[in-house]
Write a structure and sequence with these properties.
By secondary structure, this protein is of the alpha/beta class. It is 39% helix and 23% strand. Bound molecules: 5-O-phosphono-beta-D-ribofuranosylamine. The site of 5-O-phosphono-beta-D-ribofuranosylamine (GRF) has 13 residues, from helix 1 and strand 7.
């Protein structure tokens, strides 16, 4: 069974969906640890509640990148927990070369748009403010670009005339919470059958 680490910076609702799937037996993986670059992030509270080791990594002084001592600290935790996959769930930092080289095609992210449309920040708002009639979420491999890695799975949602940004993002989260466990199952089964 693959051992995974989840990295996130905020609420952690996607991490919660993965925890729930593991606990329900619908995702065969061990969540070995949850890591955040934000000390009081809700994602760490969720980890503790489920008796999953929770780690805060101080990334100062870099505002947007995981680098230097912080990157080394993450790598050390990956070794300590014998991590097979790094799962980004709302992790608001760019992952750099050392981690990418150490985990080729083993770092996964979820993004709130149908990539390649609307990469980067505020993807939900970008879609909402466009003339698109649908958007969705994408689970993809992480590479050196910004949301450019190969796509594993996408789920669409409609943008209705009655939608507000808030209602759209609620639909987005519902889709994400289904898509992430589904995509990881796909991936882990592929690995087993390789
Ligand atoms: C999600 O919308 C995800 O697609 C994006 O960040 C958000 C994280 O939400 N990368 P949560 O912390 O999992 O609730």
């Amino acid at each position: 069974m693959p051992s995974i680490a989840i990295l996130g910076s905020g609420n952690g609702s996607n991490a919660q969906a993965l925890i729930d799937a593991v606990e329900a037996g619908t995702l065969e993986a061990t969540i070995a640890c949850i890591i955040s670059d934000v000390q009081n992030a809700r994602i760490l509270e969720r980890a503790k509640k489920h008796h999953i080791p929770a780690h805060y990594i101080d990334c100062a002084p870099s505002p947007h990148v995981l680098r230097d001592q912080a990157e080394a600290a993450v790598l050390q935790l990956m070794e300590h927990y014998h991590i097979d996959y790094i799962i980004l769930a709302g992790f608001m930092r760019i992952v750099k070369t050392d981690l990418l080289n150490r985990f080729p095609k083993k770092i996964i992210n979820i993004h709130p748009s149908l990539l390649p449309a609307f990469p980067g920040l505020d993807a939900g708002r970008q879609a909402f403010e466009s003339n698109a009639s649908e958007t969705g979420c994408t689970v993809h491999y992480v590479d050196a670009g910004m949301d450019t890695g190969d796509i594993i799975l996408q789920k669409k949602i409609s943008i209705d005339a009655t939608d507000t940004l808030e209602s759209l993002m609620q639909k987005m989260h519902i889709a994400e919470h289904i898509a992430y466990p589904e995509a990881l199952n796909l991936l882990f089964n592929l690995e087993i059958n390789r």
